[in-house]
Write a structure and sequence with these properties.
90 residues; alpha+beta; 5-stranded mixed beta sheet; 5 strands
């Protein structure tokens, strides 16, 4: 059971963002997010969007830093990845 975070690289709203995911379950992801006071609105179907200002504190709390490529690979392998096509169908 691992919560993963990629390096902040996604620009929006005057900052850059990371993605926080679980490679095991959404329950694990939501529990980690709640323990670390991430707002529920930052959840986007299969991940949390995390501003750069929270990156270091989330890593200190146990999120494992990985590359974006590894994050996506492990999210897909977990079966939790929601594709763009699936997002459009929601």
């Amino acid at each position: 059971m691992t919560v993963l975070i990629d390096h902040p690289a996604w620009p929006a709203h005057n900052t850059v963002w990371s993605h926080l995911v679980s490679d095991t379950s959404l329950d694990e992801l939501h529990e980690f997010a709640e323990r670390n006071a991430l707002p529920p609105r930052s959840f986007d179907v299969d991940h949390y969007d995390v501003p750069e200002s929270r990156y270091d504190s989330l890593v200190a709390a146990g999120a494992v830093p990985v590359s974006n490529r590894e994050l996506v690979t492990r999210l897909r392998a977990s079966g939790l990845r929601v594709t763009a096509r699936q997002r459009r169908g929601r």
